[in-house]
Amino acid sequence: MVVETSVQRTNLSLYYPLEAKQEKLPVYINFHGGAFIMNEKEMDDPYCRFLANQAECVVLKLE
After folding, report:
1. Number of helical H runs and strand E runs in the chain
2. Is 40 left (phi over 0), alpha (psi -120 to 50) or beta?
3. What are 43-61's pLDDT values in tens digits?
């Protein structure tokens, strides 16, 4: 998904839990930190999926 901001267009991804026990879910915002830990933003995908399923929350990943 691409969102228009006052600076530039920003890519974001949303991860939903596979099985949620409630309709309204908390949101966790994941800011990709560049080369601090992981070299490419795609490397955050497994972590975001895991977190969404384990914490039963929506993960919003800003790229």
Report:
1. 1, 4
2. beta
3. 788 999 999 999 999 999 9
